[in-house]
Amino acid sequence: MGEPPHSKKPRRLLLDTDMDTDDFFALLYLLKQNRSEFDLKAVTINANSWSDAGHAVNHLYDILYMMGRDDIRVGVGGEGGISKDGKIYPDVGGYLPLIDQDMSTVGDCRYRQAIPVGARLNIDTNYGLRRSFLPQGSRRYIPLLQPTAQQVMIDTISDGPTTVFLIGAHTNFAIFLMTHPELKKNVEHIYVMGGGIRSKNPIGCCLESNTSCKPMGQCGIVGNLFSGYTSNPYAEFNIFVDSFAAYQVFHSGIPITLVPLDATNTIPITEQFLAEFKQHQNTFEAQYCYQTLKFYNAFFMWDSFTSGIAISIMQNGDKFSGENEFAVMKYMNLTVVTSNKPYGVNDGSNPFFNGRAVPKFNLTKYGVHSGHVQTGVGDPFCLINGSNWGRCEDGYTKEVRRPEAVQVRVATKAKSNQDHKSSLDREFFKSFLEVLNLPQQTGRFNFTTEFPYYRATLYKSNFVDKPKGKPVIFDMDMSAGDFLSLIYLLKAPTDIINLKGILVSGNGWADIATIDIIYDVLHMMGRDDIMVGLGSTTALDTPILGCKYVKAIPKGSGGLLDSDTLFGLGRILPRSPRGYHACVKSILFSFLLFPVYMM
């Protein structure tokens, strides 16, 4: 006889995320579940996608603190490497795709260049909302003490059966599978948001009623690389940024449920949803999500939809069919494309095979990994003269026949709301708002209620009747040495040095969201009168999408991770009322941008 329902242990969950907007929506949806059923044990951060490690980990700590879940393990980064012969050393940090990972955290941005640096600025700061809304607890990134992504994965999955959610690049989990195959037995199921199979991108498409409209750009492509579809119209970001890692996950033998663009394209945010959301902000977590959506002119329920489908499947008994409330499911035979035909051509694009008598990881010569690997969004191999769409398929979750195929349970479209009187047209919309507004497992406070006596006061020095020295503008890239120099300049007598402004370079030793630390240092020193200007995010005469020179800077310890957090000290500075703030965009609702098909 089986155990009675009340004696069942809660599902142990592990979430691997890149802390993009839709990622923390999914995180909050999971945190709101009844812990007697679903217990989120750990969160690991993927650091080679939409956010930068130092900013992402502190954002995560703040959300967990708001939700009263400081018990959840958090892992990010690591200084391990992969040798030329394919040996994987402990604690590979996941800063680079597996194809470019060597023995350090220095490397190119072959795939990540598809994500504009300015977009990462908005994600790292959550458009400026993160520091103005979220409370701040005692947990923060501290050099040498921060658990790595691999440590947290190993410890969590070793503790018992675990359901894994992958809603960013698959680098961290692929490394885990390749180094600890004996622990695969503890992974019950993998839920993935990513890929596109038969999807047709609705962005840039025309309403059927508008006969004079001409489709533009991405309309109709399988993928969603808005910055790179002219070279690769098949890939979706989460799979594209490390397609070889995704291949390892899909072919691991662990049961997978995939929520691709096929399904998420059918659940765009609508005017009616936002109007309903505006009226239902009864918790801090609901307020944080609603205020974030104001910055988007088009948004789909990507990762949160995945969380909802997964929870519903598990609540419905994990049936083979994947029965759930929110999406139509179907089994498909898939693989992840990692290189382009013809296979076995050594053109210098593929480090797994370039100049090697034995391919890295003992891959098969002339096999599916041996073709041309896309080198960037402007790769000439991928471009087709006279066409707006390219030929490369790196990261394509493609239907194929066996033996290369893996059977995957796939969400194909969102279910309509069963309540036809509701203004919400999708069943998951109703669940999302209900769950976020539950009084249980709710946020304890935001920044304002945590610090009720905080006042947004600007401190400006009065030099009216004092002699002023030579006006100085300080140009800095926000390395630790730059901050020491800044403090030295601020301490200098103003009749000798009159610091008038700071120019910030976004292509040096820190990511540009670190500009907030400058504001906090100036606030601490009583110099909120000094203007701060954000400069270029790329070097002169280099493409907007790329990392031509900044790739020489380590992404982990001693590099960007430590600079972005000022070696963990940025969090102990007083909070300036000034900071990076994105402009709230006028919401052009999805039904104005592209047709919304009722399913």
UniProtKB/TrEMBL annotation:
Residues 14-310 form the Inosine/uridine-preferring nucleoside hydrolase domain. SUPFAM superfamilies: Nucleoside hydrolase. It comes from the Eukaryota. GO terms for molecular function: hydrolase activity, hydrolyzing N-glycosyl compounds. InterPro entries: Inosine/uridine_hydrolase_dom (IPR001910), Ribo_hydro-like (IPR036452). Belongs to the IUNH family. PANTHER family: INOSINE-URIDINE PREFERRING NUCLEOSIDE HYDROLASE FAMILY PROTEIN, NUCLEOSIDE HYDROLASE 3-RELATED. This is Pyrimidine-specific.
